[in-house]
């Protein structure tokens, strides 16, 4: 998987002054476009589209300072339809407009080229299983919330705090299959996984029952799920689990992520400092090899 990902990074570098087809990058990486975007975001800490934009503006910055071409010629080469659009993007990354940068020889920002490698530490074994699960239903309370990459998500915290104990008891009584009990479900995430994009968040149960009045339902088709478990300090253990799944497990196992909800079941200690967590991710068998 990582060999293919690095080949896709090389393809990006060769085509920064041309339109880049993400479907072609996925073909080079021997995976799906969905998994490529998901994997890149998890490994790089930014969406693939943002990396491409920043690499283009890095090269454009060097050409602006070199002053061999007009600013409009540079703008068009890197995919901007007007000098104004280029100037806005340039200022957003470099903190200065291209004209001023050229006049003053300003110091500009830079997005280094990325390459990926698998570091096998061998200190801990990831506890996981792969489950073929029949179709099921997510039933619960739903909110549209922004995606937050790090730190607390205040929209989710406020939403969950607003659910009364009687509603939670009623909801939990509907749970009739794994993962048992109240779970957090994220669905309909933007493919870019960019900070601030929105997703559907459910405080819900997994069930075969219909949704009671006032609750939302999400029907999920049959498929394979990778199930990961962890225990440790809250919330660090859960955050580290997400990181390890994409930096260690996917690159070294014959699976890739597929579209579908992501499910997290968490049990906190009485003082809230320790957590047992179970993460369910929709997966499918990878095609094209998994060499790292």
What does it look like?
- The protein is α+β, with helices and mostly antiparallel strands and 292 residues long.
- Strands 1, 2, 3, 4, 5, 6, 7, 8 and 9 form a 9-stranded antiparallel beta sheet that branches.
- Helix 5 (71-77) crosses helix 6 (83-94).
- Helices cover 37% and strands 24% of the residues.
- The protein contains 10 helices and 9 strands.
- The radius of gyration is 22 Å and the shape is elongated.
Short description:
The chain is an alpha+beta fold.
Annotation keywords:
nine-stranded antiparallel β-sheet; 9 strands; elongated; single chain; 37% helix; 292 residues; alpha+beta
Shape label: elongated
Radius of gyration: 22 Å
| Largest pleated sheet | 9 strands, antiparallel
What's the number of extended β-strand segments?
9
Seen as an oligomer or otherwise, the chain set is single chain
Q: Whole-Å distance between the termini?
A: 5 Å
The amount of beta strand, in percent, is: 15-25%
Q: How many individual helices? A: 10
- The portion of residues assigned to helices is 25-40%
Q: Secondary-structure element order, as H and E?
A: HHHHHHHEEHHEEEEHEEE
Uncertain regions: pLDDT < 50 for 5+ in a row?
none
Round the mean pLDDT to the nearest integer and report it. Answer: 91
**Structural class by sheet pairing and helices:** alpha+beta
């Amino acid at each position: 998987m990582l060999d293919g990902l690095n080949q896709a990074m090389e393809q990006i570098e060769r085509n920064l002054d041309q339109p880049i087809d993400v479907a072609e990058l996925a073909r080079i990486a021997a995976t799906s476009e969905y998994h490529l975007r998901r994997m890149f975001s998890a490994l790089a800490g930014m969406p693939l589209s943002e990396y491409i934009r920043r690499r283009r503006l890095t090269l454009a910055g060097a050409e602006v300072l070199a002053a061999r071409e007009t600013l409009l010629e540079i703008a068009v080469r890197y995919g901007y339809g007007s000098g104004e659009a280029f100037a806005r993007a340039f200022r957003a990354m470099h903190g200065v407009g291209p004209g001023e940068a050229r006049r003053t020889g300003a110091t500009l920002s830079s997005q280094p080229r990325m390459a990926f490698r698998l570091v096998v530490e061998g200190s801990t074994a990831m506890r996981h299983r792969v489950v073929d699960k029949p179709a099921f239903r997510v039933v619960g309370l739903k909110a549209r919330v922004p995606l937050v990459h790090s730190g607390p998500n205040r929209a989710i915290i406020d939403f969950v705090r607003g659910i009364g104990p009687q509603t939670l008891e009623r909801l939990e009584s509907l749970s009739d299959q794994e993962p048992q009990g109240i779970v957090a479900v994220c669905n309909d995430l933007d493919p870019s996984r960019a900070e601030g994009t929105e997703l559907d968040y459910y405080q819900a149960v997994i069930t075969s029952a219909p949704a009671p009045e006032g609750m939302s339902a999400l029907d999920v088709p049959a498929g394979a799920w990778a199930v990961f478990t962890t225990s440790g300090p809250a919330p660090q253990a859960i955050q580290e689990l997400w990181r390890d799944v994409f930096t260690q497990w996917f690159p070294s196992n014959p699976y890739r992520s597929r579209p579908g909800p992501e499910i997290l079941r968490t049990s906190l200690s009485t003082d809230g400092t320790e957590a047992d967590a179970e993460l369910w991710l929709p997966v499918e068998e990878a095609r094209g090899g998994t060499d790292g």
